[in-house]
Design brief:
- Helices cover 36% and strands 26% of the residues.
- It is an alpha+beta fold.
- It has three domains: 73 residues, Arc Repressor Mutant, subunit A, CATH 1.10.10; 113 residues, SH3 type barrels, CATH 2.30.30; 78 residues, Alpha-Beta Plaits (2-Layer Sandwich), CATH 3.30.70.
- Strands 4, 5, 6, 7, 8 and 9 form a six-stranded mixed sheet that branches. The chain has a four-stranded antiparallel sheet with strand order 11-12-10-13. The protein has a three-stranded antiparallel sheet with strand order 1-3-2.
């Protein structure tokens, strides 16, 4: 690396003697013969790596041989990704959620966007931006099998349950895409058992198996994947715009109170408290937050959040028992 940096930093040619004196790593050579072997080996390694190492005279009056690397020959070409390749990069950035990787992934996306790469949201995986990356923990294997089936044009069979407290049923689906929305991942496709378009949350899918021949499943032209998911997970009634109403016992759940505003006083289970209204944001996070307060927090609306919290509480009670 030191040799590459030195040869990229000069407009002229660098002699072997200059390299030995000025480039870190060569001064410790015990003899001229040792330096010559090391320098020749390094030049050969650079050429094997595809780095364009040039040889030329130092000047018109100096016949000594020198070396350099032209920056325009060394630089990578412009980034030119196909929509599928750009979608793959977007998927990778969503999967790399650890603190150690998030800075690198954000930097990669910024560089791609600066280079004019447009990630196609209608590709096999649609990525949204907003309240942080979609949580995938526990569903990585499911996602991998689904993406492979989508790419191969194969149907899939899996076990699924609509809520955490309902039993699993076996479904056979022609997968069209995996879409992220409101902090969750969803499979969109044609449900052969229901003879209709359906959406399935990945965290409630298990035991995915491809079925049928490759090339048999095709996503319909012009299908609005985002619209399908929004309609499937949207709540009805006064709070369909993504707001929740939660009862909190007096003196409890201070952190949750700060996220919303009180709308009424109410007594629940003989305890006085406030009903607060707040933005749902990332549903998984809100469900975990409410569950953590136990009986001091009760979801009133929407029903989907209420069922999610009830399922978590039931699972915790079973584990403690």
């Amino acid at each position: 690396m030191n040799l590459v940096i030195a040869m990229l930093s000069t407009r002229g040619y660098l002699t072997a003697d200059w390299v030995r004196t000025n480039v870190i790593g060569y001064a410790d050579c015990p003899s001229d013969e040792a330096f010559s072997r090391m320098f020749e080996r390094d030049k050969s390694d650079l050429r094997d790596l595809g780095i364009p190492l040039e040889t030329g005279r130092i000047s018109g009056s100096d016949p000594a041989e020198g070396y350099r690397i032209k920056p325009e020959s060394y630089a990578l070409p412009d980034i030119d990704l196909t929509p599928d390749e750009a979608a793959a990069v977007a998927v990778a950035t969503q999967l790399w959620e650890s603190p150690e990787r998030i800075t690198a992934t954000q930097s990669a996306l910024l560089k791609l966007r600066a280079a004019g790469v447009d990630v196609d949201p209608s590709a096999g995986v649609a990525i949204t931006t907003g309240a942080g990356p979609a949580a995938l923990r526990g569903s990585e294997e499911v996602l991998g099998v689904l993406l492979a089936a989508i790419d191969a044009g194969r149907a899939v069979r899996f076990r699924h349950r609509p809520t955490p407290v309902e039993p699993y049923t076996v479904r056979t689906v022609e997968p069209w895409a995996v879409v992220t929305a409101r902090g969750r991942w969803y499979l969109v496709g044609h449900d052969r058992d229901r003879e209709d378009t359906r959406t399935f949350r990945l965290s409630r899918i298990t035991d995915v198996q491809p079925t049928g021949e490759s090339g048999q499943v095709h996503r319909p032209d012009g299908v609005d994947l985002r619209g399908i998911v929004d309609r499937a997970i949207g709540d009805t009634g006064a709070h369909s715009a993504g707001r929740a109403r939660v009862w909190l016992a007096d003196g409890q759940a201070t952190a949750l109170r700060r996220l919303g505003h009180p709308v009424e006083r109410r007594t629940v289970g003989g305890r006085d408290g406030d009903v607060i209204e707040l933005e749902m944001g990332v549903l998984d996070w809100l469900a975990r937050e409410v569950t953590g307060y136990g009986a001091a927090a009760v979801v009133l609306e929407p029903e989907s959040l209420r069922l999610d919290v009830l399922g978590r509480l039931t699972a915790q009670a079973g584990a403690q028992a």
